[in-house]
Amino acid sequence: MGPSDGKGAVDTVEAAPAKINLALHVTGQREDGYHLLDMLVTFTEAGDVVRIRGAAEDSFSISGRFASELLQSDASNNLVLKARDLLRGHVQKSGLTPAPVAIHLEKNLPVASGIGGGSADAAAALRGLIRHWQLEIDDNALVDMALMLGADVPMCLASQPLIAQGIGEEITLLPQFPQLSLVLVNSLKGVSTPHIFRLLEDKQNAPLPAPPEDQGQSWLSMMDALRNDLQPPAVKLLPEIGDMLSMLHSARADVARMSGSGATCFGIFSDWEKAEAAAASLREQKPGWYVQETRTIAGRAS
Q1: Is 286 a catalytic site residue?
Q2: Domain range for residue 286?
Q3: Is 189 annotated as catalytic?
Q4: In this predicted model, what pLDDT tens digit does every residue of 165-180 receive, in sequence order?
Q5: What is the 3 state secondary structure string of the chain?
Q6: Which SUPFAM superfamilies did the record assign (predicted)?
Q7: Would 3 be classed as within a structural domain?
Protein backbone atom coordinates (compact mmCIF):
# COMPACT_ATOMS: atom_id res chain seq x y z
CA MET A 1 0.00 0.00 0.00
CA GLY A 2 3.00 2.35 -0.06
CA PRO A 3 4.52 4.19 2.91
CA SER A 4 2.32 4.21 6.01
CA ASP A 5 4.65 5.91 8.49
CA GLY A 6 4.61 9.36 6.90
CA LYS A 7 8.35 9.25 6.20
CA GLY A 8 8.27 8.52 2.50
CA ALA A 9 10.64 10.91 0.71
CA VAL A 10 10.07 9.97 -2.92
CA ASP A 11 7.58 12.00 -4.92
CA THR A 12 5.16 10.32 -7.24
CA VAL A 13 4.87 12.75 -10.14
CA GLU A 14 1.94 12.65 -12.56
CA ALA A 15 1.40 14.95 -15.54
CA ALA A 16 -2.03 16.50 -16.08
CA PRO A 17 -2.03 17.27 -19.83
CA ALA A 18 -4.25 19.98 -21.22
CA LYS A 19 -7.30 18.58 -23.05
CA ILE A 20 -7.95 20.10 -26.47
CA ASN A 21 -11.29 19.72 -28.22
CA LEU A 22 -10.21 19.71 -31.86
CA ALA A 23 -13.91 19.49 -32.70
CA LEU A 24 -17.10 19.62 -30.61
CA HIS A 25 -20.45 18.84 -32.23
CA VAL A 26 -23.61 19.25 -30.14
CA THR A 27 -25.92 16.47 -31.34
CA GLY A 28 -28.85 16.60 -28.88
CA GLN A 29 -29.99 17.13 -25.32
CA ARG A 30 -31.13 14.59 -22.72
CA GLU A 31 -34.24 14.97 -20.59
CA ASP A 32 -32.04 15.74 -17.57
CA GLY A 33 -30.60 18.76 -19.40
CA TYR A 34 -27.20 17.32 -20.26
CA HIS A 35 -26.15 17.95 -23.84
CA LEU A 36 -25.12 15.09 -26.13
CA LEU A 37 -21.74 15.71 -27.72
CA ASP A 38 -19.44 14.28 -30.35
CA MET A 39 -15.88 15.40 -29.65
CA LEU A 40 -12.50 14.85 -31.26
CA VAL A 41 -10.07 15.27 -28.39
CA THR A 42 -6.32 15.30 -28.02
CA PHE A 43 -3.95 16.13 -25.15
CA THR A 44 -0.80 18.23 -25.01
CA GLU A 45 2.63 18.10 -23.44
CA ALA A 46 1.71 21.39 -21.75
CA GLY A 47 -0.30 20.99 -18.58
CA ASP A 48 -0.41 20.95 -14.81
CA VAL A 49 1.64 18.64 -12.60
CA VAL A 50 0.53 16.66 -9.54
CA ARG A 51 3.17 15.59 -7.00
CA ILE A 52 2.39 13.13 -4.20
CA ARG A 53 4.53 12.30 -1.17
CA GLY A 54 3.95 10.18 1.93
CA ALA A 55 3.23 12.33 4.99
CA ALA A 56 2.21 12.18 8.64
CA GLU A 57 -1.16 13.67 7.68
CA ASP A 58 -2.98 14.71 4.54
CA SER A 59 -2.12 18.12 3.10
CA PHE A 60 -2.60 20.04 -0.13
CA SER A 61 -0.58 22.89 -1.62
CA ILE A 62 -0.62 24.81 -4.91
CA SER A 63 1.98 26.74 -6.89
CA GLY A 64 2.40 27.94 -10.46
CA ARG A 65 1.37 30.86 -12.65
CA PHE A 66 -2.35 30.30 -12.08
CA ALA A 67 -2.24 29.21 -8.44
CA SER A 68 -3.66 32.46 -7.07
CA GLU A 69 -7.18 31.88 -8.41
CA LEU A 70 -7.35 28.49 -6.73
CA LEU A 71 -5.81 29.76 -3.51
CA GLN A 72 -8.59 32.33 -3.24
CA SER A 73 -11.25 29.62 -3.41
CA ASP A 74 -12.25 26.89 -0.97
CA ALA A 75 -9.51 24.25 -1.30
CA SER A 76 -11.87 21.51 -0.09
CA ASN A 77 -13.78 21.89 -3.37
CA ASN A 78 -10.69 21.20 -5.47
CA LEU A 79 -11.15 18.15 -7.70
CA VAL A 80 -7.72 16.82 -6.69
CA LEU A 81 -8.90 16.41 -3.10
CA LYS A 82 -12.24 15.00 -4.21
CA ALA A 83 -10.34 12.43 -6.28
CA ARG A 84 -8.14 11.54 -3.28
CA ASP A 85 -11.12 11.10 -0.97
CA LEU A 86 -13.14 9.14 -3.53
CA LEU A 87 -10.30 6.73 -4.24
CA ARG A 88 -9.48 6.31 -0.55
CA GLY A 89 -13.15 5.61 0.24
CA HIS A 90 -13.29 2.99 -2.51
CA VAL A 91 -10.20 1.24 -1.13
CA GLN A 92 -11.46 1.38 2.46
CA LYS A 93 -14.50 -0.67 1.46
CA SER A 94 -12.12 -3.60 0.99
CA GLY A 95 -10.68 -3.15 4.49
CA LEU A 96 -7.48 -1.32 3.55
CA THR A 97 -6.50 2.17 4.69
CA PRO A 98 -4.26 4.13 2.31
CA ALA A 99 -1.62 6.19 4.07
CA PRO A 100 -1.79 10.00 4.40
CA VAL A 101 -0.32 11.97 1.52
CA ALA A 102 0.94 15.46 0.85
CA ILE A 103 -0.30 16.50 -2.59
CA HIS A 104 1.12 19.46 -4.46
CA LEU A 105 -0.52 20.88 -7.58
CA GLU A 106 1.59 22.92 -9.99
CA LYS A 107 -1.04 25.02 -11.77
CA ASN A 108 0.32 25.97 -15.18
CA LEU A 109 -2.98 26.10 -17.10
CA PRO A 110 -5.51 28.94 -16.92
CA VAL A 111 -8.48 28.16 -14.68
CA ALA A 112 -11.88 27.46 -16.28
CA SER A 113 -10.46 27.88 -19.77
CA GLY A 114 -11.96 25.01 -21.80
CA ILE A 115 -8.85 22.84 -21.80
CA GLY A 116 -9.80 20.47 -19.00
CA GLY A 117 -7.54 21.83 -16.27
CA GLY A 118 -9.55 20.71 -13.23
CA SER A 119 -10.59 17.45 -14.85
CA ALA A 120 -7.02 16.76 -15.94
CA ASP A 121 -5.83 17.44 -12.37
CA ALA A 122 -8.41 15.02 -10.95
CA ALA A 123 -7.44 12.31 -13.45
CA ALA A 124 -3.75 12.83 -12.68
CA ALA A 125 -4.49 12.56 -8.95
CA LEU A 126 -6.27 9.24 -9.51
CA ARG A 127 -3.44 7.85 -11.65
CA GLY A 128 -0.76 9.14 -9.29
CA LEU A 129 -2.41 7.89 -6.11
CA ILE A 130 -2.96 4.45 -7.62
CA ARG A 131 0.78 4.28 -8.29
CA HIS A 132 1.75 5.84 -4.97
CA TRP A 133 -0.48 3.56 -2.92
CA GLN A 134 0.36 0.59 -5.17
CA LEU A 135 -3.29 -0.20 -5.79
CA GLU A 136 -4.96 -2.51 -8.26
CA ILE A 137 -8.25 -0.95 -9.31
CA ASP A 138 -10.73 -2.52 -11.70
CA ASP A 139 -10.93 -0.47 -14.91
CA ASN A 140 -14.72 -0.18 -14.74
CA ALA A 141 -14.60 0.96 -11.12
CA LEU A 142 -11.97 3.55 -12.00
CA VAL A 143 -14.06 4.94 -14.87
CA ASP A 144 -17.11 5.08 -12.58
CA MET A 145 -15.11 7.09 -10.03
CA ALA A 146 -13.83 9.38 -12.76
CA LEU A 147 -17.35 10.04 -14.03
CA MET A 148 -18.46 10.92 -10.50
CA LEU A 149 -15.82 13.67 -10.55
CA GLY A 150 -16.95 15.11 -13.88
CA ALA A 151 -17.93 14.24 -17.43
CA ASP A 152 -14.45 15.14 -18.74
CA VAL A 153 -12.47 13.10 -16.20
CA PRO A 154 -12.77 9.67 -17.93
CA MET A 155 -11.23 11.03 -21.13
CA CYS A 156 -8.54 12.82 -19.10
CA LEU A 157 -7.70 9.47 -17.52
CA ALA A 158 -6.81 8.23 -21.00
CA SER A 159 -4.89 11.39 -21.98
CA GLN A 160 -4.45 10.25 -25.59
CA PRO A 161 -6.31 11.04 -28.83
CA LEU A 162 -9.93 9.89 -28.73
CA ILE A 163 -13.50 10.43 -29.77
CA ALA A 164 -15.86 11.09 -26.86
CA GLN A 165 -19.63 10.82 -27.23
CA GLY A 166 -22.70 11.00 -25.02
CA ILE A 167 -21.86 13.43 -22.24
CA GLY A 168 -18.22 12.44 -22.62
CA GLU A 169 -18.26 8.96 -21.12
CA GLU A 170 -18.39 6.95 -24.38
CA ILE A 171 -14.75 6.87 -25.44
CA THR A 172 -13.09 5.47 -28.56
CA LEU A 173 -9.31 5.71 -28.62
CA LEU A 174 -7.55 6.75 -31.85
CA PRO A 175 -4.22 4.90 -31.65
CA GLN A 176 -3.01 6.07 -35.07
CA PHE A 177 -3.73 9.76 -34.53
CA PRO A 178 -0.53 11.77 -35.12
CA GLN A 179 1.29 14.29 -32.99
CA LEU A 180 0.40 17.92 -33.77
CA SER A 181 2.21 21.22 -33.27
CA LEU A 182 -0.13 23.66 -31.53
CA VAL A 183 -0.21 27.16 -30.13
CA LEU A 184 -2.68 27.75 -27.27
CA VAL A 185 -3.95 31.28 -26.62
CA ASN A 186 -6.16 32.61 -23.84
CA SER A 187 -6.89 36.28 -23.13
CA LEU A 188 -7.43 35.39 -19.44
CA LYS A 189 -11.03 36.53 -19.56
CA GLY A 190 -13.63 33.97 -18.55
CA VAL A 191 -16.80 32.94 -20.32
CA SER A 192 -19.83 31.22 -18.79
CA THR A 193 -20.38 27.68 -20.09
CA PRO A 194 -24.09 27.60 -19.07
CA HIS A 195 -24.60 30.95 -20.80
CA ILE A 196 -22.96 29.63 -23.97
CA PHE A 197 -25.30 26.63 -24.04
CA ARG A 198 -28.30 28.89 -23.49
CA LEU A 199 -27.28 30.94 -26.53
CA LEU A 200 -26.82 27.83 -28.66
CA GLU A 201 -29.62 28.05 -31.22
CA ASP A 202 -29.43 24.53 -32.68
CA LYS A 203 -28.85 21.56 -30.39
CA GLN A 204 -29.51 18.89 -33.04
CA ASN A 205 -26.40 19.14 -35.19
CA ALA A 206 -24.65 16.57 -37.36
CA PRO A 207 -22.24 14.28 -35.48
CA LEU A 208 -18.59 13.75 -36.30
CA PRO A 209 -17.97 11.73 -39.44
CA ALA A 210 -17.06 8.07 -38.97
CA PRO A 211 -13.39 7.58 -38.12
CA PRO A 212 -11.41 7.09 -41.34
CA GLU A 213 -9.36 3.94 -41.82
CA ASP A 214 -6.25 6.09 -41.64
CA GLN A 215 -7.10 7.77 -38.37
CA GLY A 216 -4.15 10.12 -38.53
CA GLN A 217 -3.60 12.20 -41.65
CA SER A 218 -7.15 11.61 -42.89
CA TRP A 219 -8.55 13.29 -39.80
CA LEU A 220 -6.23 16.23 -40.35
CA SER A 221 -7.33 16.62 -43.96
CA MET A 222 -10.94 16.73 -42.71
CA MET A 223 -10.25 19.24 -39.95
CA ASP A 224 -11.67 22.22 -41.82
CA ALA A 225 -15.00 20.38 -42.22
CA LEU A 226 -15.24 19.84 -38.47
CA ARG A 227 -16.38 22.53 -36.06
CA ASN A 228 -17.00 23.64 -32.50
CA ASP A 229 -20.73 24.34 -32.20
CA LEU A 230 -20.07 26.36 -29.03
CA GLN A 231 -17.71 28.78 -30.76
CA PRO A 232 -20.27 31.16 -32.33
CA PRO A 233 -22.21 31.81 -29.08
CA ALA A 234 -18.93 32.10 -27.17
CA VAL A 235 -17.68 34.80 -29.57
CA LYS A 236 -20.91 36.73 -28.93
CA LEU A 237 -20.21 36.62 -25.20
CA LEU A 238 -16.49 37.32 -25.42
CA PRO A 239 -15.34 39.11 -28.60
CA GLU A 240 -11.70 38.47 -27.65
CA ILE A 241 -12.24 34.87 -28.78
CA GLY A 242 -12.72 36.18 -32.31
CA ASP A 243 -9.59 38.28 -31.90
CA MET A 244 -7.57 35.24 -30.82
CA LEU A 245 -8.79 33.23 -33.81
CA SER A 246 -7.94 36.07 -36.20
CA MET A 247 -4.45 36.38 -34.72
CA LEU A 248 -3.84 32.64 -35.07
CA HIS A 249 -4.95 32.74 -38.69
CA SER A 250 -2.68 35.73 -39.29
CA ALA A 251 0.17 33.72 -37.75
CA ARG A 252 -0.37 31.13 -40.50
CA ALA A 253 -2.16 28.45 -38.50
CA ASP A 254 -3.55 25.73 -40.76
CA VAL A 255 -6.59 25.50 -38.47
CA ALA A 256 -7.70 27.86 -35.69
CA ARG A 257 -10.59 27.02 -33.39
CA MET A 258 -11.87 27.44 -29.85
CA SER A 259 -11.40 24.47 -27.52
CA GLY A 260 -14.38 23.18 -25.55
CA SER A 261 -16.54 25.93 -24.10
CA GLY A 262 -13.64 28.39 -24.22
CA ALA A 263 -12.11 30.68 -23.92
CA THR A 264 -8.80 29.03 -24.95
CA CYS A 265 -8.21 28.89 -28.69
CA PHE A 266 -5.69 26.74 -30.52
CA GLY A 267 -3.87 26.92 -33.82
CA ILE A 268 -2.56 23.85 -35.61
CA PHE A 269 0.74 24.44 -37.43
CA SER A 270 2.41 22.28 -40.05
CA ASP A 271 5.66 22.01 -38.08
CA TRP A 272 7.17 22.86 -34.71
CA GLU A 273 9.30 25.76 -35.97
CA LYS A 274 6.20 27.57 -37.30
CA ALA A 275 4.42 27.01 -33.98
CA GLU A 276 7.37 28.43 -32.05
CA ALA A 277 7.57 31.48 -34.32
CA ALA A 278 3.82 32.09 -34.07
CA ALA A 279 3.88 31.83 -30.28
CA ALA A 280 6.78 34.28 -30.04
CA SER A 281 4.92 36.77 -32.24
CA LEU A 282 1.67 36.43 -30.29
CA ARG A 283 3.49 36.75 -26.97
CA GLU A 284 5.10 39.98 -28.16
CA GLN A 285 1.73 41.37 -29.28
CA LYS A 286 -0.15 40.29 -26.14
CA PRO A 287 2.33 39.97 -23.25
CA GLY A 288 -0.47 39.67 -20.68
CA TRP A 289 -2.17 36.73 -22.38
CA TYR A 290 -1.53 33.03 -21.91
CA VAL A 291 0.35 31.88 -25.03
CA GLN A 292 1.89 28.42 -25.13
CA GLU A 293 3.44 26.46 -27.97
CA THR A 294 3.17 22.73 -27.38
CA ARG A 295 2.98 19.34 -29.03
CA THR A 296 0.12 16.91 -28.62
CA ILE A 297 0.50 13.40 -27.27
CA ALA A 298 0.36 10.97 -30.19
CA GLY A 299 -1.93 7.95 -30.20
CA ARG A 300 -0.51 4.76 -28.76
CA ALA A 301 -0.93 1.75 -31.06
CA SER A 302 -1.77 -1.43 -29.16
Answers
A1: no
A2: 181-295
A3: no
A4: 998 889 999 999 999 9
A5: CCCCCCCCCCCEEEEEEEEEEEEEEEEEECCCCCEEEEEEEEEEEEEEEEEEEECCCCEEEEECCCHHHHHCCCHHHCHHHHHHHHHHHHHHCCCCCCCCEEEEEECCCCCCCCCCHHHHHHHHHHHHHHHHCCCCCCHHHHHHHHHHHCCCHHHHHHCCCEEEEECCCEEEECCCCCCCEEEEEECCCCCCHHHHHHHCCCCCCCCCCCCCCCCCHHHHHCHHHCCECCHHHHHHHCCHHHHHHHHHHHCCCCEEEECCCCCCEEEEECCHHHHHHHHHHHHHHCCCCEEEEEEECCCCCC
A6: GHMP Kinase, C-terminal domain (SSF55060), Ribosomal protein S5 domain 2-like (SSF54211)
A7: no
